[in-house]
Amino acid sequence: MGFLGVIAFILALLISVMIHEYGHYITAKRYGMRVTEFFVGFGKRLWSTQRGETEFGIKAIPAGGYCKISGMSPNEELADEFKPRAFYLASAPKKLIVLGAGSFLHFVLAFFLLFTLFAGLGTSQVLPTISQVLPCVPKESTCQAGDPISPAKRSGLMPGDEILGVNGQELAWADSAEILRASAEREITLLIKRDGQVINIAITPATRVVEGVSRGFLGIINEFGLVRQNPVKAATSSARATGAIFEGSIKALISLPSQIPSLIGQTFFGQERNSQGLVGIVGVARASGETVSSGNLSIGEKVATFILIVASLNIFV
């Protein structure tokens, strides 16, 4: 399965390259430029076909691709009939559009992938449904003899109960959780859906100190699941995610010079690799393989993670 993940990543990368080069191709043709070659891969030709003045094909080494536009340099020798269509004779705005079209389509592809993730497949989120009721308020990581009974158990909360809101107000789970954490030792009323009926349950969250911070504690573990968004919200989430990934990519590039010494140490002197450090294409491919082969993720979670990896790569490059 890990091997399949790497193969899937390589195919996704090649498709991204094709879309990138298509951006150069279609805009160059739109402005009357001559495109002689459009190839995926490098090295020896495996297959090609002629369509008009352009040769389309696949080469042996699946490590990129290219679109050959005539006259990229004034020094390039061209037949007299093709010189008026040379790239270097085009106006500056047209040159910029042709050069930037590939990167622009990367962003379009990333946005489309993220939209598919948010609206079609869904993202893994904490659900308002109770999966497990803990028997106590643990002083350590697990319940021990003498630990007090948890508020959830004392109040009669049950696995399968869905928390609709707090104090008579229907809320998203994230908002309800914030209120619960801020309500230690204060009675609140949970709006619960149980067996199709909506009931109110009074409960007083206990106090539990987590990393030096006192928080309200019920003693429940929520279910996790894939949640889909409506198209409008998915589009907004996709735009925000695209912007966040792009911002992270810029920060990574800015920090690159400061990481060179550690990269040298890791490469030549056996220093331990920083898990938060830079990852190359090979590392990303390996991560894709590990994602697909992981036994801790559902099929949906594997696909969602893979889509996120490919979308992030498109924004980064």
UniProtKB/TrEMBL annotation:
Q: Give one GO molecular function term.
A: metalloendopeptidase activity
The membrane topology of this protein is:
Multi-pass membrane protein
- What are the protein's UniProt keywords? Hydrolase, Membrane, Metalloprotease, Protease, Transmembrane, Transmembrane helix, Zinc
The places in or outside the cell where this protein is found are: Membrane
The organism sits in which domain of life? Bacteria
Annotated membrane-spanning segments are 6-25, 96-121
Tell me the cofactors it needs: Zn(2+)
Q: Name one GO cellular component term.
A: membrane
Query: CDD domains from the entry?
Result: cpPDZ_EcRseP-like, S2P-M50_PDZ_RseP-like
> What InterPro entries does the database record attribute to this sequence?
PDZ (IPR001478), PDZ_6 (IPR041489), PDZ_sf (IPR036034), Pept_M50_Zn (IPR004387), Peptidase_M50 (IPR008915)
Q: Which GO terms describe its biological process?
A: proteolysis
Q: Where is the PDZ domain?
A: 150-207
Q: Name one Pfam family in it.
A: Peptidase_M50
Say which family it is in: Belongs to the peptidase M50B family.
Q: What is this protein called?
A: Peptidase
